[in-house]
Write a structure and sequence with these properties.
Length: 362
């Protein structure tokens, strides 16, 4: 069986370090591993509209930002098809048929949808489009016959729902679709990078993100004002690692080579942690080190971004070409689905023949 990846992001803002450790870095590794036959990376603008319907301009403006973030992280259009969801009408058509295979009760139980409904205070006024977005996400995945969906753990219920839809479709109409597997981030610290203020998640509305497109000065300012251990007042005080954002980031990013290069008095992160917990190590020193570590990651990304920003029309062209390739694939899958569902009237010569026979015999 061909190994196929599909994943994507809602274009509601520039991508940040949380996206990088949680997904972008991995995607680039998967892309370059050469293990996958096809890779699709989708900018999920239609899904973004399910809770931004009054704000289409925000979605529109962020498509190029996300595409630039993709390219600057190393996604390569020669190896990964990058495309825009709304440009593939077949996805809507598939969603419409999948709606017959899912109950309202099942959608209500989807834990991600449940929390999101609470977060957005929809209460009784949930837009149907929002409520049913897991179904549309199943279309995104199955249209490409994806075997592997690299996403964060918050997306697990979506993949589960997709598997159920596939199962049901194949059971009712015959083997047609592929059941995808989730591919979770491999490092625990990467599962969810906290915001610079120590809050659980980087979020634009909280203003606690380090963006991939931030300048070196912006990053430094954010790092130096990061949340650490509020009880660690004097250098001599013993410090705590639990909930200490600076150390969470070091867990996610630092390597022994970084220590050799920037902080050679420690061999590795364990030694630094031991000193911090014992007391006698100030936050500023740890933060300066973190800033150096982050710059190693961010500088090449920033440089590549600057290059791509010089030719914006060709970035749109890349997305347009990607969307054409994606549509061709989705079209093929949809034709197979319609065949299985017996709604392929004009392609089915036998149907026309048999019907003619039936009526001529009457
Ligand atoms: N729901 C994903 C998010 O919010 C975006 C997305 C849409 C997606 N369709 C997808 C992810 C299909 C993986 C596969 O980040």
């Amino acid at each position: 069986m061909r190994k196929i990846i599909l994943t994507g992001d809602r274009p509601t803002g520039r991508l940040h370090l949380g996206h990088y450790v949680g997904s972008l870095k991995r995607r680039v590794e998967l892309q370059n591993s050469g293990e996958y036959d096809e890779i699709y990376i989708m900018i999920a603008d239609a899904q973004a509209l399910t809770d931004n319907m009054e704000n289409p301009e925000k979605v529109r403006q962020n498509i190029i930002e996300v595409a630039l973030d993709y390219l600057s992280c190393g996604l390569d259009p020669e190896k990964s098809v990058m495309f825009i969801q709304s440009q593939i009408p077949e996805l809507c058509e598939m969603s419409f048929y999948y709606m017959n295979l899912v109950t309202v009760a099942r959608l209500k139980r989807n834990p991600t949808v449940k929390t999101e409904i609470q977060m957005r205070n929809f209460e009784e006024r949930i837009p149907v489009g929002f409520f049913t977005y897991p179904i549309s996400q199943a279309a995104d995945i199955t249209a490409f016959k994806a075997t592997t969906v690299p996403v964060g753990e918050d997306q697990a219920p979506m993949i589960e729902q997709t598997r159920e839809i596939v199962h049901r479709f194949n059971y009712v109409y015959g083997e047609t679709l592929i059941e995808p597997s989730i591919l979770l981030p491999d490092n625990q610290a990467c599962m969810r990078l906290p915001g610079t203020d120590g809050k659980a998640k980087m979020s634009k509305s909280l203003g606690n993100c380090i963006y991939l497109s931030d300048s070196a000065e912006e990053v430094k300012k954010k790092v130096m004002s990061m949340y650490t251990d509020p009880t660690h007042l004097k250098v001599e005080d013993p410090g705590h690692l639990e909930g200490n954002t600076v150390f969470t980031y070091l867990d996610a990013f630092s390597t022994d080579e970084h220590f050799a290069k920037y902080l050679p008095e420690y061999k590795n992160l364990d030694e630094l942690k031991a000193h911090y917990t014992k007391g006698g190590l100030g936050d500023v020193k740890v933060k300066r080190f973190l800033n150096n570590v982050l710059e190693e990651v961010l500088q090449p990304i920033r440089q590549r971004r600057a290059e791509f920003e010089k030719d914006i029309p060709s970035v749109y062209k890349m997305l347009e070409e990607g969307s054409k390739i994606a549509e061709a694939k989705a079209k093929k899958t949809l034709a197979e689905m319609k065949n299985a569902m017996r709604i392929n009237y004009f392609e089915d010569k036998e149907l026309i023949q048999n019907q003619s026979k039936k009526f001529s015999e009457q």
